[in-house]
From TrEMBL:
A Pfam family recorded for this sequence: Response_reg
Species this protein is from: Spirosoma oryzae
Gene Ontology, cellular component aspect: cytosol; protein-DNA complex
Matches recorded under InterPro entries: CheY-like_superfamily, cNMP-bd_dom, cNMP-bd_dom_sf, HTH_CRP, RmlC-like_jellyroll, Sig_transdc_resp-reg_receiver, WalR-like, WH-like_DNA-bd_sf
GO molecular function term, any single one: phosphorelay response regulator activity
Domain Response regulatory: 3-119
Listed GO biological process terms: regulation of DNA-templated transcription
Annotated ranges, domain Cyclic nucleotide-binding: 125-242
Keyword Disulfide bond appears in the UniProt entry: no
Positions carrying 4-aspartylphosphate: D52
Transmembrane segments: none
Protein name (record): CRP-like cAMP-binding protein
Keyword Transcription regulation recorded: yes
Length: 357
């Protein structure tokens, strides 16, 4: 019989949840506050924890933070009970390692389904023969249903993590776009890298286990898988092919960032603007190699428009917004791009490519 720890300060809510779980043949242990919940989690060793967020003295975030640092409870499935569903609350909980959220008032069917799903995933992860190699691991990240990791939808301008945050997850982008930014003491911002579908975000900070040295912000609506740090480290140490794969990703990322820093330091602004246009195009909008790039109007597929704010272009180029706008206007006058609000269409990619060299 599986044991579930329910941490909830409101007696009526706690007893209602307990009654439903007992009817479903679970053993239930109750705690009326966060401190008692931590003590019971350590002494009882539950198979799953249901925990309210808003509690006096020690709230749900504090409970999760403490238990996540304890090797004996770090891998115990943890589901938050909350009346708050704002994106920032979801991000806080998921960054700490929460597996799921249940919104009050809690539907009995939703409660039992969430508990059963999390317990099944733990059983699957505890079967050594089922541990994935690299191919299985990457395939699991693409699964809409059955993925062993939590998946969240992020809106434009939402922050995955900020400079100074303690790394907690590796982020896998299923869809959408993310920018990596650094801010200096004078509040100047530069985009250091771009990530899109199929990319992993946050790897260097997780491996070095130091506070994040940059922020990651969503450029366009994204669907992102969160892989907890503890599970990532287990994969890296248990599977040589996964470890080698992430080492190659890390080496490639360092090389690309070094090349970009050199260009930002020594290239004139015009070349940096062209470099930024081609970087965004190739990262997010490039076409198959066998398509010929022709002027706008001959083949709509060959001249996709790119949507990015002028502020983002300036941060990507590493120059003032006025300077970037002036260079873009020059490129438009020369017939290489088309401007329409925040949309930029590349009309002559071959010529732009020659300009950056």
């Amino acid at each position: 019989m599986k044991t579930i720890l329910v941490i909830e300060d409101k007696k009526e809510v706690r007893e209602n949840i307990t009654e439903i779980l007992k009817l479903a043949q679970y053993r239930v242990v109750q705690a009326s506050d966060g401190r008692q919940g931590v003590a019971l989690a350590r002494s009882v060793g539950p198979d799953l924890i249901l925990c309210d967020i808003m509690m006096p003295e020690l709230d749900g975030y504090g409970v999760l933070h403490i238990l996540a640092k304890d090797p004996n409870t770090a891998r115990t499935p943890f589901i938050f009970l909350t009346a708050k569903v704002a994106p920032e609350h979801l991000r806080n909980g998921m960054n700490l390692g929460a597996d799921d959220y249940l919104t009050k008032p809690i539907d009995n069917i939703d409660l039992l389904a969430a508990v059963e799903l999390r317990l099944k995933k733990v059983e699957q992860m505890n079967q050594p023969v089922e541990q994935p190699g690299l191919a299985d691991f990457l395939n699991a990240l693409h699964q809409v249903d059955g993925c062993p990791y939590s998946t969240l939808r992020y809106s434009k301008k939402q922050i995955l993590y900020a400079e100074g945050d303690t790394p907690a997850n590796l982020y896998y982008i299923r869809s959408g776009q993310v920018k990596h930014v650094k801010t200096d003491a004078s509040a100047n911002v530069v985009i250091t890298a771009l990530s899109g579908a199929g990319d992993f975000v946050g790897l260097p900070g997780l491996l070095s286990d130091v506070p994040c040295t940059e922020s990651a912000e969503v450029l366009h609506n994204a669907e992102i898988c969160l892989i907890p740090q503890a599970e990532l480290l287990t994969l890296l140490t248990s599977h040589a092919d996964i470890g080698a794969y992430f080492m190659r990703l890390l080496a490639s990322d360092v090389r690309q960032r070094d090349e970009r820093l050199l260009k930002l330091a020594y290239q004139p602004v015009r070349k940096r603007v062209v470099e930024a246009l081609l970087l965004v195009y190739r990262k997010f909008y490039s076409l198959p190699d066998d398509l010929v790039i022709t002027p706008l109007g001959q083949d709509v597929r060959s001249a996709p428009f790119m949507t990015l704010s002028r502020e983002n272009w300036a941060q990507l180029v590493g120059a003032s917004m006025e300077t970037v706008i002036r260079v873009l206007s020059d490129l438009r006058a020369e017939g290489m791009i088309k401007l329409s609000g925040s949309q930029i269409t590349l009309l002559d990619i071959d010529r732009l490519t020659r300009l950056k060299h």
